[in-house]
Please model this.
Amino acid sequence: MSLTLAHALRMGRSSCIAFVGAGGKTTAMVKLAREIKPNVIVTATSHLGLWQTKFAHTHISTDEDSLDIVNHRTQGIILVTGKRERDRLQPVNNKLLNWLYQYCKSRSIPLLIEADGSRQKPLKAWAAHEPPIPNFVDVVIQMAGLDGLGKPLKDELVHRVDIFSNLSGLGNGETISPKAISEILTHVEGGLKNIPKNAKRIVILNKADSLELQAAALAMTPSLLPAYHSVIVASLTNEKVYAVHEPVAGIVLAAGESTRFGKPKQLLDWKGQPFVRAVTLTAIRAGLSPVIVVTGANAEQITSTIRDLKVQIVKNENWKTGQGSSIREGILTLTQPQPDLSQTRNENDVGSAIFLLADQPQIGVSILQALKEKHTEGLHRIVAPMVIDRRGNPVLFDRVTFPDLINIEGDTGGRAIFHKHRIEYLPWHDDGLLLDVDTPEQYQRLVSNEDL
Model:
């Protein structure tokens, strides 16, 4: 099943979304409006071209401060603009804009706002008065057209080319690189400009019409995610959403008492370091962020082995009740509100989490990266490796499953919610994913296999 734009945006029932940037704002807005039928209201805080009215089922052009929408007998996509001014339409006035927001909010109707102009060019920079983003929006979608990548920095391709040059460091006529686009999108006077503090920030790298451009978008993602909640790679004119990149957390479960083994498994040696440190370092190397280690029994000893690492350590006081309480502690730590004092993304705003077991130090970076990549393709609720005909660990859980994970009880682990959500299986050919350490014999088997 292909990923819809509404799903990729994780759009709420009554979201208010502003579209800014260049490279397909109207296309994105129309595609989203058609996906979230039956009714959606579209408006603008910048001028629109007359050609942009053709997508709407109803166009209301007014300079009034409010509307009697019911008497317009409107249905479907309702476009509300200011009056016509030669070959374009004026933005709505502020009073009408606020009225539309309250109207939509009270009736759970999505409100989409084009808050920027780009003269139909792939890329742009922003003048002093731009972009006019209302402070009440829930989501700001920053558009960028990858068809400008690899081409010379010229006015034909970039709106406000001089400002783009100043912000990116590129000279006029120089080749537009992925680094230059990333610099623009993450600059406080560029892509982050005028975004309300509490609004979700999303980049759509549009017109990724070839494998080369999709690879370039993937390479840009690490530099974009610190400033944005997600990066979407798409070709919207071709009705394709290729990937949704979001921060993926790592939660290391290290709270057990190791009763069957007879001593703390988390502290067993694996190639010169304790199990728990090896697992935690693998999560860090795979780019999981944040990484949370849940301790319980033997908490002080375990903490001492990872204290120097950039991780969050949380003690599960209820560890004796089973793994469910550790899962709950990890998710609660991950999702608790954090103060956001800058224009950077809150580190706890993640799209998914991978749970790692402290008695599986043989798990490598490659499986974690593969789980992440599989999740980007469809925002699958659960992604689990499948070795021959057996499910292995670790397992990735999308954020929509977090409320269910919090309610797990006992020692069943994440499989307790498998019946509630569709599982996407990732074929894997390493039976090391099936091995954990419960007995000294299993430990000897693990350490004797040098290839793991």
Notes: The radius of gyration is 25 Å. The CA atoms of residues 319 and 325 lie 6 Å apart. The longest strand covers residues 139-145.
